[in-house]
Amino acid sequence: MIAREMLRHPEAGLNPQGFLDDDPAKVSAKILGLPVFGPIDSLPDEVKNHSIDEILIAIPSGNGRLVRRIVDLSRKAGVSYRIIPGVYQVLSGAVSISQIHKVDIEDLLGREPVRLDIDAISKYLRGKRILVTGAGGSIGSEIVRQVARFGPEFMVLLGRGENSLFELELEVKTSFPNLKYKLVIADVQNRSKLEQVFREFRPQVVFHAAAHKHVPLMEGNPDQAIINNVGGTRNVAELALEWGVERFINISTDKAVNPTSVMGASKRIAEMVVRSIAAKAAPWQSFVSVRFGNVLGSRGSVIPIFKRQIAAGGPVTVTHPEMKRYFMTIPEAAQLVLEAAALPYNGKVYVLDMGEPVKIKNLAEDLIKLSGFTPYEDIDIIYTGLRPGEKLFEELLTAEEGTIPSPHEKIFIANQNGIDESFEEKLEYLLRVAQDGDKEEILSVIKMIVPTFRARLKDSVLYDIDA
Asked: What residues contact residue 425 under an 8 Å CB cut-off, 6+ apart?
């Protein structure tokens, strides 16, 4: 497709010479009159034999390992390289020359594409009224994009940041001109405002993505983590139950597992809130949480920070040489959230298959190389030490939980212990001490609700609240 586009538009200055393909049956064949020179590993030789200037990676379904292999061969051959969008971006199956772009870190970390059960997702979204909280955020806005493709009757895009919602509206008007929607500036902590939203729009499906997510900031402001992440979730979920919402999907995080941070603990308690409300749901209602790791390129994630540091000439700062994180592209995460919501269960915590964890140090090195520099020579990497609340390695499951498979290969169901009978009482007390801003009491009550919670002192030494 891309070669045909080049031949049709010679004014673009791109002159295709041939293909490389690992399929032996294609070698020596001709496609559009262009030869298949040989396998991918022959790239350096073919570059020399045919005076190639640039390599174009046109494998939308290729994983990050394959892209990295081609990038390394291209660098070895001394030629530039670019890529066409992955399947997440090219949903229509059509590509054009204008979509060719430089290889980015997302391309190196890409995995096999998600196989979506389109019929199951369409069944609960098409023609329905959808509410997305935190709609201006990285995950919330991508959920909006993904849902919009399924033809909902109406969407309520709720958030408290006017700038992010303004930018989202500009995109929606261009990309989804037929979408009926309403922007609502509201805080999930404001229950009376939320009730007005439910009364006016009567949503049938709710995606709850609004949350405070920055670990170090929440360590310093634990009251706000609890008020927003726990209290806000309770507000939205309780109103969803009261107003007959069919499906409620809470966006959670791997930091909720054996939490060492207030942010992680707040998300774990939010999962418990959703499960407690699920126990009161009607047979036709579903209240679930979906837990996943870091998403590439989200606001405040390491990628934009590293890019700014590289642009400034370095150094790139990494907290610890052994720091590892799970990563997923924003579109993949959003698609799996939609898929998980289609599963026929209530009260579950779903865990997304995040693939293999990635060393942050390696991520920094890759990004420096992709920017045209040599790590430790042109751009240095320095280590700054773990920040309050951080772990070296995120866990998706606690040892006690374990998982069982779901009908989808990339979605698992966490085994959950029953919720303590005193949970509601402890929850009320936690929200009360959060309103009072009593940091030590907040930590103590969190420990009562989440026994695996371990707080972190300023010197980054873990300690148990009971110790």
From this structure: none
Contact, 139 vs 165, CB < 8 A? no
Distance CA 396, CA 328 (A): 13
Q: How far apart are CA 152 and CA 253, in angstroms?
A: 27
**Residue 43 burial by CB count (10 A; 0-12/13-18/19+): exposed, middle or buried?**
buried
What SS3 state is found at 382?
Answer: strand
User: Residue 298 has what pLDDT?
Assistant: 55
Instruction: Give the angle 316-317-322 at the CA atoms, nearest 5°.
Output: 115
Beta bridge partners of 184: 158
Neighbour tally for 97: CB within 10 Å: 15
Categorize the per-residue pLDDT at 197 as very low, low, confident or very high, splitting at 50, 70 and 90. Answer: very high
Q: What rounded mean pLDDT belongs to the chain?
A: 86
CA distance 141 to 161: 12
Rg (CA), the chain: 24
Strand pairing category for 327-329 and 381-383? unpaired
SS3 375: strand
Per-residue pLDDT tens digits for 254-294: 888 888 899 999 999 999 999 999 999 999 999 999 987 77
What span, in angstroms and rounded, lies between the C-alpha atoms of 320 and 456? 16
Percent of residues, the chain, with pLDDT higher than 70: 86
- The distance of Cα 27 from the centroid of its chain, to the nearest Å, equals 38
- Locus of tokens 């998706």: 396
Q: What average pLDDT score do residues 13-25 get?
A: 91
Alpha carbons 164 and 158: distance in angstroms, whole number: 11
| Per-residue model confidence (pLDDT) at position 96 | 53
Q: Give me the torsion for CA of 274, 410, 94, 75, rounded to 10°.
A: 120
Phi, psi dihedrals of residue 451, rounded to the nearest 5°:
-60, -25
d(CA 445, CA 199): 34
Tell me how far apart the alpha carbons of residues 29 and 53 are, in angstroms, rounded to a whole number: 22
pLDDT digits (tens, 9 = 90+) for 203-235: 999 999 999 988 889 999 999 999 999 999 999
Q: Considering the domain 118-414, what is its CATH architecture?
A: 3-Layer(aba) Sandwich (3.40)
Question: Domain residues of the chain, as ranges?
Answer: 2-103, 118-414, 423-463
CATH class for the domain made up of 2-103: alpha beta
Q: Is the pTM of the predicted complex or chain greater than 0.70?
A: yes
Percent share of the chain, pLDDT over 90: 52
Check 213, 255, 267, 324 and give the catalytic one. Answer: 255
pLDDT band at 388 (very low <50, low <70, confident <90, very high): confident
Query: Is 255 a known active-site residue?
Result: yes
